[in-house]
Amino acid sequence: MIKRKKQTFEGTEGELLFMTSELDELHRDVGMPAMRQGVSDMVDAMETGARSTSRRTFLLGAGAAAAGGAAMMVIGSPSLAGAATRRVVPARSLDAGAFPPAGLKGDLAVAAVAASLENLAVFAYTAGLSAATAGKLGPVPPAVATFATTVKGQHTEHAAAWNGVLKSNGKSAVTVTNPALTPTVQADFAKVTDIAGLAELAITLETIAAQTYQAETAKLKSSAAIGLSSSIQPVEMQHIAILYYVLGMYPGAQTSSGTPLAFNPTSMAV
User: Fold this and answer.
1) CA dist., res. 205 & res. 125, Å (int)
2) Are the C-beta atoms of 70 and 163 separated by less than 8 Å?
3) Is the bond preceding 100 in cis, omega lying within 30 degrees of 0?
4) Which residue, among 59, 178, 204, 57, has the nearest Cα to 123 in the 3D structure?
5) pLDDT value at position 42?
6) pLDDT attached to residue 72
């Protein structure tokens, strides 16, 4: 986890609700149409044969599969309350050295990694909401829960987009959380005792995702894949900005000590 000076919730609930509403509206009006177009373009550009399922089915159905896959990785109840103390099952015996799965190259390999990062975000936000509901994080402003629920839904849709591309090209959907990062995230989550700590962990996850998209976009081969990645990366940056607001910090790219940066780095990209 990125280490920062410990903060409490510094904003007002009204301001946070307004920003969450604007975030969701922008996602629905701009982000989702761009993402759907990106999926459609990428599927067309990489088509390898007949597909048995329509693009619409992928976009509408893969989201539930992505969220469910992230939850099913945890031994025991599907509920993620206390998930940080449970062992993550390496689905299909995947480990850090075997990911992306064999047979995925180029843009499809990037799609698999992106889906695994989105699954990890869904997992973490679900665990955080469950811990908050169970009273393990102290007082939780309702606006914070609304933000977390909204962002979790957006990450679910991002995972669905990448998995739609994979399935359209005859590949299996990625329903695991990123194997290289999951143990660290669970260990860090086990140390979270309040909303500030949860926000810091969320910033770390969002930063990894945003910087990975930024770094990988330059390596993608097809303009369609570049378009899809570019439609998602700004959303992750919006999440980061609001999380910094929750902690009462500068909302842009910054060092671990809080010094603003002119450009977003890629040192945390996977």
Assistant:
1) 10
2) no
3) yes
4) 178
5) 79
6) 34
* 91-113: burial string, b at 16+ Cβ within 10 Å, e else: eeebeeeebbbeebeebbebbbb
Residues of the chain with pLDDT under 70: 1-11, 46-98
| Rounded-to-integer distance, Cα 43 and Cα 55, Å | 8
Report the distance separating Cα 139 and Cα 230, nearest Å. 36
Rounded CA gap, 146 and 151, in Å? Answer: 9
**Rounded to two decimals, what is the model's pTM?**
0.78
* 8 Å CB contact between 122 and 152: yes
Q: What is the pLDDT of residue 58?
A: 43
**pLDDT tens digits for 236-259?**
999 999 999 888 888 888 888 888
Tokens 């088509």, residue located: 47
Say if residues 164 and 39 touch (Cβ distance below 8 Å). Answer: yes
Tokens representing 239 are 């999440």
- Amino acid identity for residue 16 in this structure: L
